[in-house]
Amino acid sequence: MKFSYFHLMPYHFFDEPQKDWPTRNTNFDPKKAQELYTAYTDMMARAEDLGFDWVGCNEHHFSPYGLMANCNLIGAALVHRTKNIRLAMCGNLLPILNPIRVAEEYAMLDVMSGGRLIAGFMRGIAHEYIAYNTAPDESWERMAEAHDLIVKCWTEKEPFGWEGKYYKFPAISIWPKPFQQPHPPILMSASSIESARFAAERRAIMGIVRLPGYEQALESIKVYRDTALTNGWKPGPEHVLIGAFTCVADTFDQARAHLERGLDYFFNVLNGGVATAQRIVMQKTRYYQEERTKAQRAQHVAAQRSSTIDERIETGQVLCGTPEMVVEQITRMNKIFGHGIMNVNMKVGNIPNDVVNRSMQLWSEHVLPHVRHL
Amino acid sequence: MHLNRIEIKVKSETLTCYVGGEGPPMLFLHSSGGARLTPALERLAEKYRIYMPIIPGFDGTRSSERLRTMLDVADLAAEFVDTAIKSPCDVIGQSFGGRSAAWLAIRHPGVVQLLILAAASIRPNGEERPSGSPEDARLRLFAHPENLPPETRPAEWLAQNRAVSLRLRGSPAEDAELLGRLKEIRALTLILYGTKDGEIPPSSAQFLKSQILKSMLIYVYDAAHAIDSDQPDHFVRLVDGFFSLGETFIVARGKEHTATLPS
Which CATH class, in words, describes the domain spanning B4-250? Predict the structure, then answer.
């Protein structure tokens, strides 16, 4: 099994829940943010020394939930601070971005890093569409077209143009082209049936970064595998990524307390504005094309907010406890999902950085050696 | 704007031809399916005078003894331009017509101003034509069959079209000669290829791009082999943009620019 150290880079200097969308940035403190960026990139660079196989970045907009408006910049900051760890951009939000720019920046990261990029092609959470003034109803079509165009940029041997429904570029020839051939592995979010199907049709690695519940996740994995077979290929464990909020501590009570507080802050303070935006988007759009997916998403969001730590451990939403307990939790999840990549997010909400660093240390010394073989 | 079916006498033949529209002349060399009048062509006729000669033997016309190869078709097309259009003109060759358009540009460079090869039926690696059921063929040709105008031509015409195109298609030696001489095309060329084309491999379009010195290749998204039928708005935009603007076609225009047909 491979392990990915994922970071959201939260800005956690609010005392009160942030409900408005977009979250006002009146009191943004650049000095504090600079310190956060330094601390966070230090953690992410350290992940390699601690035995992680991937380090994961992401893209979110207009919210203190995450300070990575462009994950590629963080990826670039990590290129020369690391040697072997894969740089997982999880990832550029294709439907709201210029696909040529994505193709170019990903190619730059891949070349600069000597071929370590995992290219995340993400659709984005609903609020991102307000941020970049893009119609959510168009998200799937844009995603499909942008995917094809980016892969073309990477693989075409001659200059070419593109005449599409959403993108028109008459003369393209990107420099650089990717290091990895034919192109970097592509990772897509696949927590719903429609996204699982989409990922499998394009031979992408599927990722469920936050489990919506075992049943739903298993259904997504099944759809992914069945769709892959229909499309002429067979995915292995290395094509399935499962993620969880994670806290490893010397005692269970410590881990539980830290994670409980962090999750409370994450959902009820940092995530408030995002939730408001999502509610607005869901009302009148077909961001989720199937009603069932929309309903599942709503249930999942509600459950995420209200579950206890014990419930979250039971349903695989979190890895929490002593190293021995976390080993057992990962082993159980692997038995259930058969996944080959475990994505851990340790900086949850406002968990102090020293607690996160301790969690990383315990992980490296006492968890990883016992789960590497899975 | 409507195209009319008329007879035009050229030096060696009397050709049946669709002609219509007002504006700079455009020669359209049709596919092996025959001379199909599509909404895209009728829209282009609002700005161009379109000439679509029917290759003898297609669409119920009398075959010509003289036409044995695509080179003969190209020579006939050159005679047609000299006689009916009377000046060099812009040329589109679609699929099978793309082969004759390429030969026209090679053998009669003075006739061709700007050239468009739309899903040109040129297979650089000698690939076999795909086979399968009529439904398979339909899917290779059309991503959006719902766009097709109803077929009104009799079945015997369509059968004859297939027979004539097979006869004219050419030997492997002729294929090799064409592949080797693409470099001689001097006209600025736009190569169009549908991302869902199941009839011609993408290596065909890529090969054309690599061989024709002054060329551009544009992939038309969500179009199969019949680009004009699957994506008429995009086809019209590309053809009109390229023929109006030439090499400056690649430069974005602001909203005020009116040189091209609105979609």
Answer: alpha beta
A201 touches chain B (CB under 8 A): no
Query: Of all helices (H) and strands (E), which one includes residue A236?
Result: none
pLDDT tens for each residue of B31-56: 999 999 999 999 999 999 999 999 99
Q: For residue B241, what is the nearest residue in chain A, using CA coordinates? A: A170
pLDDT-derived band at B150 (thresholds 50, 70, 90) equals confident
Nearest CA to B231 out of B189, B190, B188, B197 is that of B197
A164 touches chain B (CB under 8 A): yes
Neighboring chain A residues of B206 at a CB cutoff of 8 Å: 156-158
Asked if A160 reaches chain B (Cβ–Cβ under 8 Å), the answer is: yes
Contacts of B195 in chain A (CB under 8 A): 148
Confidence at residue B230, expressed as pLDDT on a 0 to 100 scale:
96
Task: Quote the ipTM score.
Answer: 0.91
CB B39 within 8 A of CB B25: no
How big is chain A, counted in residues?
A: 374
Query: Any idea what DSSP says for residue A94?
Result: G
Model pLDDT, residue A263: 94
Interface test with A, best of B189, B191, B218 (most A CBs within 10 A): B218
CATH 3.30.2350.10 for domain A2-371, yes or no, is no
Q: Roughly how many angstroms between the first and final C-alpha of chain B, as a whole number? A: 15
pLDDT in tens, A13-56: 988 888 888 889 999 999 999 999 999 999 999 999 999 999 99
pLDDT along chain A (374 residues), means of 10: 97 88 91 97 98 97 93 98 98 97 98 98 91 94 98 97 97 98 98 96 96 90 98 98 97 97 92 85 72 66 74 91 98 96 97 97 98 96
